[in-house]
Design goal:
The chain is an alpha+beta fold. It is built from seven helices and twelve strands. It has helices spanning about 10-30, 45-50, 55-65, 100-115, 165-180, 200-215, 235-240, and strands spanning about 1-5, 30-35, 40-45, 65-70, 80, 85-90, 125, 135-140, 145-150, 155-160, 220-225, 230. Helix 3 (about 55-65) packs antiparallel against helix 5 and helix 4 crosses helix 6 (about 200-215). It is globular and about 45 Å long.
Length: about 240
Amino acid sequence: MRVLRGRAPTRDEDRTVTAEMLADTAESGESAVRVWTPHRQVAFGRRDARADDFDVAKSVARACGFEPVERSVGGRAVAYTGTTVAFARTVPLSDMRTGMEERYVETTRAVQRALWRVGVPAQRGEPPRSFCAGDYSLQWNGKIAGVAQRVQSGAALVSGVVVVDDHGEIAGALDPIYAALDVPFDPDSVGSVARAEGDADPERVAAVVEELLVGDASATVEVVGRDDAETAPSKASRAAEPAED
């Protein structure tokens, strides 16, 4: 399994890293995991892009200090502050029609166990009128994590977000954005590891999520932006070693 760490210098380059990870899995048949803190942005989903006032929503995002981008996976808008943790796991597929539920469940359970390890007793589900509502969300004093999936020929991408801190800032930005998109939203539904009184160090959260997504697989680590790779550290040391930002 490939493990990618760190982020590219720009938003566009960073998004390309994950897209290429999916393409590489489809071609090589090798799974990959990436857990990192994306650049500050609001990522809009396909349904958002079809909204009548999508341009207004993008302008609101900019006014709130978030660069708007469009993504090909997931539902509604999600805000990343720079400390928000994103995760992506790619798996090879022989049949696009099978395994979707199993991939959702496996990934959600891994993220849930990671949250438990950082002191958050997260449970499946989400409060009403949450951001990017979905069936595979985790909550504790607000929605903390969500999971989405994209399937293409040869590979699937299961990805999502963990809100580490800045829940107030995220809620404050998403409130007018969702209003512009005419989507119900309750600012108090936004949770975070910090709000749940867990260990809100983004590097620690990323390292633990990575460890649980990798599991017992034999892995090689690749640092984004570098051509060299190294053998992954042992399972015990991975949890202690922070993911690069």
